[in-house]
Design goal:
The complex is a heterodimer of chains A (about 400) and B (about 130).
Chain A: E1 6-7, H1 18-24, H2 41-61, E2 68-71, H3 74-88, E3 95-99, H4 104-116, E4 119-123, H5 133-139, E5 144-148, H6 162-172, E6 175-179, E7 198-202, E8 213-217, H7 245-283, E9 287-289, E10 300-305, H8 310-316, E11 320-321, E12 323-324, H9 337-341, H10 346-349, E13 352-356, H11 363-382, H12 385-391
Parallel strand pairs in A: 1-11, 3-4, 3-5, 5-6, 6-7
Antiparallel strand pairs in A: 2-8, 7-8, 9-10, 10-13, 12-13
Chain B: H1 5-12, E1 27-34, E2 39-47, E3 53-61, H2 64-77, H3 82-86, H4 90-97, H5 104-124
Antiparallel strand pairs in B: 1-2, 2-3
Classes of the chains: A alpha/beta (about 400), B alpha+beta (about 130).
Amino acid sequence: MVKRPIYLDYQATTPCDPRVLEVMLPYFTEEFGNPHSRSHAYGWKAEEAVDYARKQVAAILSADPREVIFTSGATEANNLAIKGVAHFYKDKKNHIITCSTEHKCVLDSCRHLEQEGFKITYLPVKSNGIIDLDDLRGAITDQTVLVSIMAVNNEIGVIQPLAEIGKICRDAGVFFHTDAAQAVGKIPLDVNAMNIDLLSLSGHKLYGPKGVGALYVRRKPRVRLQALINGGGQERGMRSGTLSTPLCVGLGEACALAQTEMRAESARLKALSARFYEAIQGSLEEVYLNGDANQRIPGNLNISFTHVEGEGLMMGIKELALSSGSACTSASLEPSYVLRALGVEVEMAHTSLRIGFGRFTTEEDVDTAAEMIIKEVGRLRDMSPLWEMSRQGIDIKSIQWAEH
Amino acid sequence: MAYSQKVIDHYENPRNVGSLDAQDAAVGTGLVGAPACGDVMKLQIKVSDQGIIEDAKFKTFGCGSAIASSSLVTEWIKGKSLEEAAEIKNTTIAQHLSLPPVKIHCSMLAEDAIRAAIRDYKEKHPSA
């Protein structure tokens, strides 16, 4: 078999941990019962497994198991939270606040509601990627029903001040939803201490299976939702459809493992990130970290390599699997909207790479990756007219470029 | 995205990377594209008294297809007259490199770069 690239794209997805797969397997075969069948042992066994998984998911959030709704993933959970709340309370309130760096599924759900007549405020972020709490306070009106701010950004890894946002929302009597797909298992979360009313999470971002996620929905004070999927009334009527026992079991086990190992794993990843960034900084000039340097998860680095186009760079480091902030492949030629929201100039956004470290990343992987990137950036800078001009002291911005 | 073998070859072994003295009367320089769009090409030609391109150099900021397009045209224009070089079309470049539709703009930029370099040379030699 051809040697596979080193995987450094842990924000895109994570491999299912073999320990997770192991507990899932029996539920595909022997324990195949429908967890909603109440009349026989097959159903009871499956229901028991789902209940246990629900406890495991609740535990990592310090929530009550009855507050956990299984979904197909974080996209569905985000849709359900935002549209569900908006539709349920539409006769009383019609305003939602979110922010410009949210995941597409949050932004697109909001756009959809906007077309239905809801008012949406998209808060800007500061240059470190974090919202200004005064902006949030200023945006809340007596018509605001929901604030949806992500816990951790998928591109730049910055952590929003959840407890502060939660307090502002609770004081104002507004529900607080957070998309925590990139946060669960990576940073400690406590829905009560942080006053979180709704929280979305995803299985495959925390070494669980793809195709499963969950929405935490607070019971006290009660948050009500209009379901997106109607049917047999499963999941307290908020999400009908037979649950996939193996997927729920996998999500539960993934949460349990992440919770047990979070502290040690965070320290390990922090050391790996620091090792990588120091190697890069030590060998390359004009390299910039996007997003707050401290308020970020340890497994993410988003770096701009001045005057080296990201897609071109990725082609030179084929042995590494990662993502670029440049979207040269898309017809629009628009680079990352997240980096743009931080005020990163378009030309700099084109030079960025997202580097994600995770549970199966080794020190050797990190050293190899740093070495390859340093070598390739050097080669491409020698080939870059912009690098040459900046070395000659020419201000790139002073040139009249013909944008195409 | 899968790149063609030719794009990979030019990306990994780019021909004629470098710079010529832009102040030299025999040199024409073309700088096209924009950093904000994610690609900038600098193409330089050195023209003999007989109007033949003796040397060509490039530097490109951009994706693999942009680098390959500029590398390829430096090979093609060497030894050609200015008139012949000006006839190189983006479609020929795109076809040669098997560029996918989203990368056609890279070949257009390479064509623009040739024309810009020729224009610069001609501005230095109004009588030519």
